[in-house]
Structures are given as structure tokens and as C-alpha cells.
Amino acid sequence: MIEDTFPFWLKALPNLQVLILSSNKLYGSISPPDQGPLGFSELRIFEISDNKFTGSLPPMYFVNWKAASLTMNEDGGLYMVQEEFDHGMLHTTTIETIDLRYKGLSMEQERILNSYATIDFSGNRIEGQIPESIGLLKELIALHFLDNVFTGHIPLSLANLKKLESLDLSSNQLSWTIPSGLGTLSFLAYINVSHNQLKGEIPQGTQIMGQPKSSFEGNAGLCGLPLQETCF
């Protein structure tokens, strides 16, 4: 078991694609000293769950990750950038088997394509707003921030994550409403925003309506299906 601060020195490994530091005694901030982007441009899997990390994530934290084809304007808006292919071919990379937490369960992922797959910051004490720059990672399929101290609203930019299949923001201090754009994510098979401070009507997209009510419980101001509380 490792007891230390976040190993920013790993940025010296330019081809690092998988970083799994879960279930250790790591502590301190995971934000760079200059409060800029994280800086692991090739990273595909980023798992630091069940540690003692603290601090907040700067607005540009998820900028410049190679798999993103969305770019952030200076005003914080997002726009598309055309992807480049080598001689008309899309090349992929396969790496060895790893264990991941996915859709609320542990799973073994045998192949990782050359794109973003999962981010898991669960079980820490990370606080502040979830950066809108998370919406740049268009290849993301699983995002787990449960059991932290995140505050503010759920980023509207999550609606840009068209391949997202698993989203867990439960057991934080998030407020305001659930973005209606989450109801348009056709691959979203698992969502959990329970035990926050959310309010308003739950978006009625097909994927969200198929979730159990336990995924929304613990938010006194939420209403609509699958909860029993009506909005009228």
C-alpha cells in the first residue's frame, strides 16, 4: 500500500495510457501546482478511487487530453475539431487486461482502444465544482465521482459525452437541477445521483426513466419518475 502524494512525476512517461492508484493511502491535491491541465496527454484509464485525495479541480483540468475531439474556447464554450487519421486508417492500440469498476460493478476489461475509457475518483475528499472541461472527453464511457465533496451544479457539458454508459455522482453535495441533456445520452445504461442536494424535475429521457428510484433518492428537492414524488 502506497502512502504518498500524487505522482506528478509520471508525466515524464509520455506514452502512459493507464494509471490505476486505487485503494492506497495517497493524499493531497491531484491538481498541478500551476492549476492548469492535468498533463497526461495519452492517458486512457485514470483510477484513483479509495484514497485520501483532497482539494479541487481547476477549470482546465481535462483540457489537452489527446482522445478529446472537442476544444474549449476562451469563454468556456465547446466546439468540434476534426479528427486526423493516418492515410485514411484509424489505428488502435491494445494493452493488457486490467480490472475496472464499471456500471456499479467490478469488471475486467481485456482490451482498451486508443481512446478514453474510464475516470474513477470515487472515495476521496475532492471538493469544489466539477469542471465543465470534463465534457471535452468525448470517448469517455464511464465517469465515477461518487463519495466525494463536490459542490455546485452538474456540468451541462456532460451532454457532450455521447458514448457515456456509466455515470455515478452519488454521495456528494451537488445542487441545482439534473441537466436535461443527460436524458439524450442514448448509451447511458447506469446513472446514480443519489444523496446530493439536487432539486427540480428528473429529465424524462428513455435511459433515465429506466433507472431504479434508488439512483435518485436522498435529494429532498427532486421530483418526477422514477421517484414517487410528483412535480405538480
Automatic annotation (TrEMBL):
It comes from Brassica napus (Rape). One of its GO terms (cellular component) is plasma membrane. It is a single-pass type I membrane protein. Belongs to the RLP family. This is (rape) hypothetical protein. It is found in: Cell membrane. Gene3D superfamilies: Ribonuclease Inhibitor. Its main location: membrane. It comes from the Eukaryota. InterPro entries: Leu-rich_rpt, Leu-rich_rpt_typical-subtyp, LRR_dom_sf. Pfam families: LRR_1. SUPFAM superfamilies: L domain-like. Keywords: Cell membrane, Glycoprotein, Leucine-rich repeat, Membrane, Receptor, Repeat, Transmembrane, Transmembrane helix.
